[in-house]
Design brief:
This protein is an alpha+beta fold. It contains 18 helices and 37 strands. Strand 15 and strand 16 form a beta hairpin. Helix 7 packs antiparallel against helix 8. The N terminus is likely disordered.
Length: about 850
């Protein structure tokens, strides 16, 4: 069968292996699925026995898994894919024993295409955070109103009369939707004309459309005289519906037999699969068929797999009890044999029949219907300025329109059934999603001093190239969005920074690198460069949002500390004042974007550093008090009980606004109208716009929290700051993958977005090192220091160019940082925090030795 046969497992390939700890929580199995034909397959059904998956993963959580696909053809390409697309999947228990039997999903395949599928599993509290909501694609039910058992996709609905008629009937659909529940509703007349669909077929005395029957002594025998007739609705869901009917003691000619008929309806398909198992002898002849309608002549296959169809004006007029076809409307009905592939065509007065024997008591066929009105009332919304309350409705037509088209469609199905998709499990064991391929190669370990030297080379290259450009612009002419010479992201291989207009929120990190390098080397070129770029920031402090802390702490404050410049000191104090202006005493938070704003983000914990500096510089306690209020509220609203971190909170700033803006950065907004009945200053909702989902943890956000609360404790000695930093640190350490470099999102773990984030790793390493000097517990201190060093060593050995002797890239590129998914490259703040952390680790060595 094209879609239900599970292809042989043709061997196993090894996933990339790693040497350290495994990613917590989630593991994946890699599967290659190939279209062997030269024709596109849309929504190709795939079934994988759970027993085959458990051979690879004995601990498989079948009830909580995700299926994703990349348009790649092997493991190496799959590992390099920036993201994977989730597809709806379904787990079915076929025998009602409470244990999963099959995994089912559908996949679009181009001609001869191989796709890599990953089945990722874990406990529900992890999987369901990142699993999508799959709309219903099928349904099945038993109802007296429809006189039996029904099943459907969005294309057609079917029912089998649960009585001696045992005939399969058809509901046609003019809209692609599920309708069985409506048809089963009391007092709803499904015979009447409807823009959605209705009963369009008259079975009469025939066996029905694809129903099971017997052929004996030249006569068809319905499954009418049975000792017991029973049914099961095995499953319904986004992918398929499965129903089953059992006929016990069926008097079929000169024999009594038991037959079980299982129907599988896949989402989006016009037809359904039917398989039968029986205790009949091998010489018993089964039959199935189509009602004989003179308005719809029969069509037979001429070669290969047997199929039979009818096409013509066989749609019955609307109304209960009516007869006669609707003129000008055509319906195609079809049967394709699956097992056996060949059958004998026979007609009797009421039926076009296919007769066959059931090898070892098993047989199967595919039944379908194609109405030329199918989807004719599907609604596609388009904008129409003349319509104020609703948009215009466009109704594209997708139905099969002619006998020739239907015949070709039947032959395609027959061909596909004879050439099923090939399924091959490649994993020998279930494994976490691997790190980027080049990070897995062996390389010579680097010392901190060597890594700092590589970063210094990158700084020199960048400053030399961009100095003339920045020098050509006068101070005061640049802004967050105007002027060339500042950077955010660059290329993993070439190390070239992408041109951007303005210094954005990240401009201070480049200046901070220059000041750090001047502090280390006392080489005047670094001071010259630092003052050049710093001068382009000075004077614009009052124009910034909360990122005034990022922009001016790492530039003006650092510069003042190195030079004693009064100008830079005043610049730092103006930036602190701007951050203070954004503080809302009602929410006790610094608003992210403007005065009286309605949201704050976790990043602001880092911007508090400029307040701690202003407190030390001026001796005015207002700076410390303001920062403390923000930090305590952040601990309350942003940090979850398990130490995971929300990125953003929205609150009532005091005006009860109903219109809020969700920002993924200072330049991009999404508006949201929301009922706001909270008290002034109270929490409205949380969300994570740069991580995977509102309830997940963006790894850089967790880094901001860890580092920020550690610095807050250093500045205030408030125990809440320390306990919060420890809580976040322990969560982070429990979630790091084997090489210590976090995924872009701790919960997604590379399932959807295959991005590690080295910038988050550098921030976390620095935060852990600081925290190691603050906790009183020696074991905790050793743990944090050791993990800081492990993460940093992984960064410089595996991610900082050159990695290995054959790495052609310029030195000093910190690869695989991720600003916004699914981007992958070097980031200016990744470069800065790695430099800062390495300098701190280098300075920490003598302290450890002295102890």
């Amino acid at each position: 069968m094209r879609n239900l046969i599970f292809a042989a497992f043709l061997g196993f390939g090894l996933l990339f292996t790693t040497t350290a700890r495994a990613t917590p929580g989630l593991a994946g199995i890699k599967i290659a699925i190939t279209n062997p034909s030269g024709r596109q397959r849309r929504a190709e059904p795939v079934v994988i026995p759970i027993a085959e998956l458990r051979r690879i993963a004995p601990d498989l959580h079948a009830g909580s898994l995700i299926v994703t696909v990349t348009r790649t053809s092997d493991l190496q390409q799959d590992a390099g894919a920036p993201q994977a697309a989730e597809i709806p999947s379904q787990i079915d228990d076929l025998d009602d024993d409470g244990k999963a039997d099959e995994l089912a999903f559908q996949l679009d395949l181009q001609p001869h295409e191989t796709c890599m599928v990953t089945v990722t599993y874990g406990k529900p509290n992890r999987i369901l955070k990142i699993r999508g909501d799959y709309p219903a694609g099928t349904d099945a039910l038993f109802a007296k109103r429809i006189q039996g058992l029904g099943w459907e996709s969005d294309k057609n609905a079917w029912r089998i009369y649960f009585d001696p008629r045992n005939a399969i009937d058809l509901y046609g659909k003019k809209r692609s939707m599920l309708l069985l529940k409506r048809f089963a509703t009391a007092e709803y007349d499904y015979h009447d004309e409807s823009p959605d669909g209705r009963d369009i077929y008259d079975i009469g005395s025939a066996i029905g459309i694809g129903a099971v029957a017997a052929w004996h002594d030249g006569k068809v025998i319905k499954a009418a005289d049975v000792a017991k007739r029973s049914y099961r609705v095995i499953s319904t869901g986004p992918v398929r519906a499965i129903v089953e009917i059992t006929y016990e003691g069926w008097s079929a000619g000169d024999r009594k037999i038991t037959v079980q008929s299982r129907v599988t309806q896949w989402a989006g398909e016009r037809g359904f699969y039917q398989t039968i198992t029986s205790d009949a002898a091998s010489d018993f002849t089964f039959a199935t068929g189509l009602p004989l309608k003179h308005e719809a002549p029969v069509i037979h296959s001429t070669a290969g797999r047997t199929w039979m169809a009818s096409w013509g004006e066989q749609v019955v007029k609307p109304g209960a009890g009516t007869t006669g076809p609707v003129a000008g409307t055509n319906l195609g009905l079809g049967l394709v044999m699956i097992m056996p592939s060949a059958a004998t065509a026979v007609d009797d007065p009421g039926n076009h029949l296919l007769t066959f024997s059931a090898s070892e008591g098993k047989a199967g066929w595919y039944t379908l219907a194609a109405w030329d009105q199918e989807g004719g009332n599907d609604r596609v919304m388009v904008a129409n300025p003349e319509m104020q309350e609703r948009a215009s409705l466009v109704t594209p037509h997708r139905g099969v329109r002619s006998k020739d088209e239907f015949s070709q469609f039947m032959q395609r199905i027959a061909d596909d059934l004879g050439n099923p998709a090939q399924v091959k499990i490649l994993s020998s064991t279930a494994s976490p999603q691997p790190a980027p391929a080049e990070t897995l190669s062996r390389s010579t370990p680097k010392t901190y001093a060597q890594a700092i030297g590589l970063l210094q080379q990158e700084i020199d290259r960048t400053a030399t190239r961009w100095e003339p450009i920045v020098s050509a612009s006068a101070p005061g002419t640049m802004s967050t969005s105007k002027g060339l010479g500042f950077f955010v992201d660059g290329d993993n291989q070439t190390g070239e920074w992408k041109k951007r207009d303005g210094y954005f929120w990240t401009g201070g990190f480049w200046v901070g690198e220059l000041w750090k390098m001047y502090s280390r080397t006392h080489d005047e070129k670094y001071r010259r460069w630092a003052e050049l770029w710093n001068s382009r920031l000075v004077g614009a402090e009052a124009q910034q949002n909360h990122d005034a802390g990022f922009l001016y702490y790492y530039s003006s404050v650092f510069g003042y500390q190195q030079t004693g410049s009064a100008e830079l000191k005043e610049s730092g104090l103006r930036a602190a004042q701007r951050v203070a202006q954004l503080f809302n005493p009602r929410s006790q938070l610094i608003a992210a974007w403007e005065v009286s704003g309605d949201d704050s983000i976790i990043d602001t914990m880092m911007n508090l550093q400029i307040l701690w500096w202003a407190d030390r510089q001026t001796g005015d306690p207002k700076w410390r008090e303001l920062g403390m209020q923000h930090a305590r509220r952040t601990a309350e609203w942003f940090i979850r009980p398990d130490g995971s971190v929300a990125q953003s909170v929205h609150y009532n700033p005091g005006d009860g606004r109903q219109h809020v803006e969700l920002r993924g950065g200072s330049t991009r907004t999404t508006t949201l109208d929301i009922p706001n009945q909270t008290a002034s200053g109270d929490l409205l909702f949380r969300h994570t716009h740069q991580g995977f989902d509102s309830g997940t943890t963006w790894s850089r956000g967790a880094g901001w929290a860890l580092y920020g609360f550690s610095r807050a404790y250093e500045a205030t000695r408030d125990p809440v700051m320390l306990s919060t930093a420890v809580k976040v640190a322990d969560y982070v350490l429990g979630e790091l993958p084997e090489d210590g470099i976090p995924w872009y999102d701790f919960d997604d773990q590379g399932v959807h977005y295959r991005n590690r984030d080295t910038s988050a790793a550098a921030i976390i390493s620095g935060g852990l090192l600081g925290l190691s000097h603050q906790v009183a517990d020696p074991e905790k201190a050793a743990l944090y220091r050791g993990e800081s060093r492990r993460i940093a060593q992984s960064l410089i050995d595996r991610y900082l160019s050159p990695v290995g002797g054959d790495d052609p890239s310029p030195p000093g590129i910190l690869r695989h940082a991720c600003g916004t998914r699914p981007a992958d490259g070097m980031l200016i703040y990744g470069q800065y925090y790695l430099l800062e952390t390495l300098l701190a680790l280098e300075a920490d060595e003598p302290q450890r030795s002295s102890h």
